[in-house]
Amino acid sequence: MSALTSVSVSVPKTSPHFSVQNRAAGAYLGMAVGDALGATVEFMTPMEIHRQYGIHDTIRGGGWLRLKPGQVTDDTTMALALGRAVLDAGGVEADAAAQAFDDWMRGKPVDIGNTVRRGIIHFRRTGRAANPASEHDAGNGACMRCLPVALATFNCQEETVEASRAQAHVTHNNPLSDAATECVIEMIHGAMLGLSLDELHAGPVVKLLHGFPRFRFDNGRCDNPSGFIVDTLRAVFQALFEGESFEAAMVDVVNRGGDADTSGAILGMIAGAYYGMDAIPMRWLKRLDKKIRQECESQARELIRLGWT
Ligand code: MN
Ligand code: MN
Predict the structure, then answer these.
(1) pLDDT digits (tens, 9 = 90+) for 137-186
(2) CATH topology of domain 20-308
(3) Cα(7) to centroid of ligand 2, in Å?
(4) Which pick of 34, 109, 145, 250 has the fewest CB atoms within 10 Å?
(5) 255-268, pLDDT tens digit by residue?
(6) Cα of 144 to ligand 1 centre, how many Å?
(7) Domains of the chain: which residue ranges?
(8) How far is the CA of 17 from the centre of ligand 1 (A)?
(9) Model pTM?
(10) Is 36 exposed, middle or buried (0-12, 13-18, 19+ CB in 10 A)?
């Protein structure tokens, strides 16, 4: 471990020097905080949010799932289920991921997306961890839980595509979902290396836009983003690249409403890795469910150790 703590790669135009461990914990906690904050306003419009809360910036629970303050939803609990499977298997394996999601569904999660349910039932029926390709699987459900893959592949980034698809295709086998999820993983890798927002844009985001111009986000504000991965990422990109802090970007994205817990979770992973753990407001971390917070911190630690070996 002592060799690891000395690793902090210096790159021009970057945010302050944080260790990779700090950024990994920031990504995990950022995801959970975004989920817990956004879930309150999931499926609301920006106008409804404004009427009810002014600016929604307090983790207070409620929402359509009637959550306790600090409770998280499927986004975080699926990522944690995947993270445990990756740690147990010593790497990202499709069968282990599918079994983990199956067990997760048996545990009666507080919510579950349609595509996720369909994919897990397909695995139960066929024993096959990969779903056939489908143009209908372009929801954000594979992307929202990709963080453990980002950490586990941090030091072997040439394995990103294969590892990402292994977990993603259990439920979402679709080119838009694949490209978006791989882009988010590459952004997390870049943020953990200390790249600037400009560099994250010029690298992974421009690559995504070349392959799939539908993800363009400079053409009008994306409010009320749906669970369609294109909508979700456009809102995340707008908030991330315009925001000047973790808090500002997060408050921006969740107040757009729509699939707010998922846009919050995805923004939280990237921004948490970029701004580091200490940029996450303490009032949010304190509200976060204690067990979830602990598991986020321990998975971040263990997955980065795995990603290093
Ligand atoms: Mn959710
Ligand atoms: Mn959601």
Answers:
(1) 999 999 999 999 999 999 999 999 999 999 999 999 999 999 999 999 99
(2) ADP-ribosylglycohydrolase fold (1.10.4080)
(3) 35
(4) 109
(5) 999 999 999 999 99
(6) 9
(7) 20-308
(8) 32
(9) 0.94
(10) buried
